[in-house]
Give the backbone structure.
Amino acid sequence: MIYREAGQFKTSYNSDQALLPIAQDRFFVIGLLVVAYFVIPFVANDYWLDSIFLQFFIYALAAIGLNILTGYAGQLSLGTGGFMACGAFSAYKLATSFPDMHIIIVLFLAGLITALVGMLFGIPSLRIKGFYLAVSTLAAQFFLLWLFNRVPWFTNYSSSGVISPPPIKLIGDYYITGPQATNLTQYFFTLTLVVVMAFGARNIIRGHIGRSWMAMRDMDIAAEIIGISPLRAKLSAFAVSSFYCGIAGALWAFLYTETVQPLAFEINQSFLILFMIIIGGLGSILGSFFGAAFILVLPIFLNSAPALLGLQLSGSLVTHIEFMVFGVLIVFFLIVEPHGLARLWGIAKEKLRLWPFPY
Amino acid sequence: MMQAFIFDPFMMMYDSPLFFVEVLVSGLMSGVMYALVALGFVLIFKASGVFNFAQGAMVLFAALTFVGLWELGVNPWLALILSAVTMIGVAFCVERIVLRPLVNQDPIIFFMATIGITYFLDGFGQTIWGSEVRPLDIGIPNEPFMDFAEWSGLYINKFDVFATVVCSVLVALLAGFFTKTKIGRALRAVADDHQAALSVGIPLKTIWTIVWSVAGIVGLAAGILWGSKLGVQFTLALIAFKALPVLILGGFTSIPGAIIGGLIIGSGEKIAEVYWGDAFGGAIEDWFAYVVALIFLLFRPQGLFGEKIIERV
C-alpha cells in the first residue's frame, strides 16, 4: 500500500518521460537530498564529512563510471584506477598551468582528457570482448600508472613524485582545495557534483545512447542488425565511463587526499570499484551508491567488530580477514543475487506495494 | 631522442654480442617461469571455459602451504605431497561451492567469481601462514655453470636450467595426459561443449575437480620455483599479471602457445628493459608485455596458436 503507483496517471508526454515517473520514487529521492543537504552537514562532525562522506561520493562517482561501461555496455574493465589517475593528473596539470581557471572547468577538462584516453584504450574492444578485453584494460592500468610515475612532466618535476594541488577558490573567499578549504565547502561541492552527474548518467542511459549500450550488452550481433553502430556504442561507453572515472580521480586527488601519488590508484583500487558495482548491482545507478556505501562501511565494521567482541587482532590479520570477507561476499552475491543490492531494493519495493496484504 | 630509441640499442647489441645472448637466455628462462603460471590458466580455460583469475592466488597459496609445512618441521617430500593434497582440496571446494551453483552463467560471471576466489585465497593463506617474506631454498644453487662460462664466456644460471627442465617435464606430462588418457579426452570434450559432453555421459563435476586440481598442482610447482627465486611472499600472487599477456599472445586454449608466448614475453621484456629501458625512463617491465599483447590483439585476436573461435563484433 505504501509504494503503489496505481492512480498516478500521466497526462502529458513530459510526465511520461520523467526521470522518476513514480511519485514515491520522487519523494524518496527528494527526501534523501534534503537529508544530504540540510541534515547531515549540521549533524556530522569533521571526521564523518571528510573521511566518510567525501570518500563515499567519490567512490560512488567512480562506480557510476564503471557501471556505465560494465553494467550497461557490458564491457568488463579492470583499468578504473588508471583512468582515475589520468583524471587526477590531468586536473593537476591544468590547475597548475592555468591558475585562474575555475575548478569546475578544470574538472570538466580533466574528464574530457580522460575520456579521450579511455577511448584510446577502448579501441581493442571493437575486436575482442569478455576477458580478453579485461586483460587489455589491465594494460591501461599498468601503462598509465607507469607513465605518471616515471615521466616527471606530469608531476611538475616534483622530486618525490607526489602531487599536491594548489589552493583554488570556488566562489568569493571560499576555497575548495588547499589548507583554507573547509570540509563543509568540499562536502557541498562534491555532493552537488555527484547529484548532477548521477542524474546526468540516468538521463544518458534512458536516451538513445544508453539504449544502444544496453542493446550491445545483451546481444551485439542483434544490436548491429537493428542498426546500432558497435564502434559508436562501444567507444561512447568508454568515453562517458572514463569521463566519470576521471572526475572521480580528480576529486580524489584535489579534495579527499590532497596529496596524491600514482600508487593511490593501483590495481586494488580498480578491483574495489568493480566489487562495488557487483555488490551494488550491475546496470543500476542506485546500485553504484549502495555498493560504494557497502564497501566503505564493511572495513570500518570489520575493524571495530573484534574490539566490540573483546578480541585483540593485529592490523595485518584484520586486513587479511577483510580480503577473505570481500572474496566470500563477491562469490556470495554472484551466486545468490547477481543483480546485487539494487535488486534487493527492488524486491523491497515489490513487497511494499502489496503490504500489508500477502498478494 | 631518436638516437636513443633507434640507434643506440642496436649498437649496444653489435658491440657485445655475448652480453646480448646472455640477456636473451636469461629472458627465455624467466619466460619459462611465466609459461608455468600461464599453463595453469590454459588448463582450466581449456577444460571448463572459465578464465581463472585466481591462478596467481593459487600459486601463492600453494607455495605458502609448502613453506609453512616445511617450517613446521615436516619432511619436504611429505610437505610437497601434503600441499598437493591441499590444492586438490581447494579444487574440490571451489567446484562444490563456487562453480556448481554458477553453472550455465555467462563466462564473465565466472571470471568475476574467480576474482572473489583470488581475494579469499590471498587473505586465507596469509591469515594462516602470516605475511612475512619466507626464504625457500630447495637446494639448487642460484649460480652460473662455471666450467661452461670459462669455455664459452656465457653465464648460464643453474637454477634457471633446473626450472626449464621442471617446466618441460610438466608440459610433456600434461600433453600426454590431454591427448593419450581417457580423462584427458573427456577434458577436451567438456571444453568443446558442456552439454554435449554431459549427454554422452561425461561427469562434469568430476572433470572440473580434476582440472582445478591439476591446475593447483601446476601452481604448486610454479610457486615453489618462483618462491625459491623471490622468497615466498604476497608478490607471488602478482605473477598472475605477468602471465596474462603471455596467454593473449599464445592463445587461451593452447598449451604450446603458453610456452612459446612465455618465451616471447620473457625474452622480449628483458631485451626491452636492458636496451630500451633507459630511453623510456626505466621500469618498463611492468607494462611492456601488456602493450605487446594489446598490439598483438588488434591483428590476431585468437593468439598465436589459439583456436579461431573468438567472437568478433
Q: What stands out?
A: The CA atoms of residues 16 and 271 of chain A lie 38 Å apart.
